[in-house]
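Notes for week 9. Today we move from apo structures to complexes. The key idea is that a small molecule is not decoration. When we ask for a structure prediction with NAP present, the ligand SMILES becomes part of the input, just like the chain. The input block below holds both the sequence and the ligand string. Read it once before you look at the output, and try to guess where the molecule might sit.
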Amino acid sequence: MTGATGLLGSYLLRDLVLNGESVAVLTRRSRRQSPQSRIESMVSGWEAEAGRMLRRPVVFDGDITLPRCGLDDDAIGWIRLNCDTLLNNAASLTFDGNAPEQEPWRSNVDGIRNLLDVADRASVSHVHHVSTAYVCGLRSGVIREDESGEPEAFANDYERSKALGERLIREAKHLESSTIYRPSIIVGDSDTGFTSTYHGFFAALRLAHTLVRCVPLGATSSESLLEFLGIRPHWHKNFVPVDWVARTIGTLLRHHGARGRTFHVTHPDPVPMSLVGSVIQEAVERLSETAPGNDPQGRSESWFAANLRSELDVYTKYFRDDPVFDRSNVLALLGTDDVPLIDRASLLRMSEYAITNGFRSVPSHMAATRPRNPAGACEPVGRET
Ligand SMILES: NC(=O)c1ccc[n+]([C@@H]2O[C@H](COP(=O)([O-])OP(=O)(O)OC[C@H]3O[C@@H](n4cnc5c(N)ncnc54)[C@H](OP(=O)(O)O)[C@@H]3O)[C@@H](O)[C@H]2O)c1
């Protein structure tokens, strides 16, 4: 498995480990931690939560952007003896990047080539790949899971790179099967609101949270927020909670009938942007530090609008009206539809989690000890991706 340290990956690995599966992970080192200690701190946290011993994954120090993913002959030999399935969840979520030697291309395209090379050398013949529902690019209408062919236009380089990565996997001759999972926009845990990455919805929330420190309360509104960003209130976005995405992929991964198919891991009830805007407004008014009305530093609504627009420029096409993601394959194999509701209450819970925990990326088992966000200066935040 790759990408075990990310938001979705940590839930995927947790479910696999709790289920008693034998897993090997390919993980890169972070600035402060070795791959082994990154994984160990995650698993020991789940062990404490579960109240029972959990089997440790085998950890390989690797980076998918390196030739053979940085694995030596011994590691590839071990994989050949012990693994028959690759679950690729690693990706770069960088939206903009034209040059092929930069992200998102390095991880999402070169990384796939390197992983396929490792799979070939190690005779791993089944690949499960986490893609995105947005490989459909800017197409509208109903998008079917089994459609082939790529769209003419994409919202950003991330979508284009994921579409190319998916194609490389489908076309790999040495695989017996390639199974593709396409989640829509992954948000926090449906129960706790936990998240460790802040893309999409959270990027807009984070920016509004930062900017309201400088704009007197009441100077702007959710309607203005959408208007500044060129978003129509009746447009819809498809959000899915991370725990459900992991549970669904885990179930399909074990289902023999799923092999070789493509699945939209998407919500049947997308959320209107009017709700997204009003949740962001309510969350920041309730939880963020806002500028007092008489503060001489308080900026105008036009200052707010200009900063919001320039910082979220990269998301302009991303916040378009979503197409309808057909879910026939998922429903046929799962039988029941157990997607948790994404409504005002759940989005507020996720917003509260993000704001009170300072938009920090801390593993789930340490979430309870995370400090509140300290008050910051009136500076717009940098881009998350
Ligand atoms: N977030 C969404 O809304 C969304 C929606 C649809 C599909 N997806 C897909 O879901 C998957 C997981 O996304 P996420 O939101 O959980 O992202 P994330 O939190 O940013 O996690 C990305 C994971 O990939 C790993 N990774 C990235 N580049 C790597 C490299 N060169 N070598 C080894 N590992 C590397 C990261 O490792 P480090 O911890 O070392 O950085 C991390 O474990 C991705 O494939 C993404 O395209 C995400």
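The CA atoms of residues 34 and 58 lie 13 Å apart.
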